[in-house]
Amino acid sequence: MSAVSADVIAQLAPTGVLRAGINMNNFLLVVDKTDAGDPIGPSPNVAAAIADALGVPLKLVPFDTPSSISAAAGEDEWDIGNIGAEPQRAEVMDFTAAYAEIQATYLVPADSAIQSVDEVDQPGNRISVSKGSAYGLWLENNVQQAELHAVEGGAAFKLFVDEKLDAYAGLRPGLHSQAEQLPGSQILDGQFTAVQQAVGINKGNDAAFAWIKTFVEDLKANGTIAGFIEQFGVQGKLSVAPPA
What we know:
Elements lengths: L5 H7 L5 E6 L8 E2 L5 E2 L1 H13 L3 E6 L2 H6 L8 E5 L2 H4 L2 E3 L4 E9 L17 E5 L3 H9 L4 E5 L3 H8 L4 E5 H10 L4 E2 L5 E10 L3 H16 L2 H8 L7 E2 L4
Parallel strand pairs: 1-4, 1-5, 8-9, 8-10
Antiparallel strand pairs: 2-3, 5-12, 6-12, 7-10, 7-11, 7-12, 7-13
Helix pairs in contact: 1-8
């Protein structure tokens, strides 16, 4: 693992404790909670590995959504934020390369003529997506012809059903539960993007950023991330990201 300088420790743990912002809304990265309410899963374990390498205690700081973590950038609420890396968030945070990936695709209704991901972004099609999600931000940047409806949380699926929209965007593992509620609906093969789960830090901490980028690559290369994925039983849903 990479050596840690005093500058890195001072930048990443200025209070003497590593405060890790954890997105509680991703069921693959946070699979459960302790009796005390602390998150359990691959994301908290990544934070723990970073704290161990720094030689400081860890404090997990739960957030309801990834967008609330990015909104708190620079507000002295967290030292690292484990969320999907997207261009909008990168405006306020510096991200490592991804340590894990999750496929994002579409659910379409039973009577849909759409048979592939490439057919969704077409004139006249309407897509529902959870506002502020990493894959939703990707769609905001990349949908060119379809009509995108970004709404808060669970309201996106309700909108898709109630208004008979053409496609519902989501993470592939999570779409299975929605598909069960709509007999005959189809989860499209392939992906429109893969959500890049990464470690973000506050901007202006150059020594810390250089170290943590290398450290995350080490965690991928030495099998640590793969071990976390296996430990929490999310193989086939969460995968180790390729080297940077």
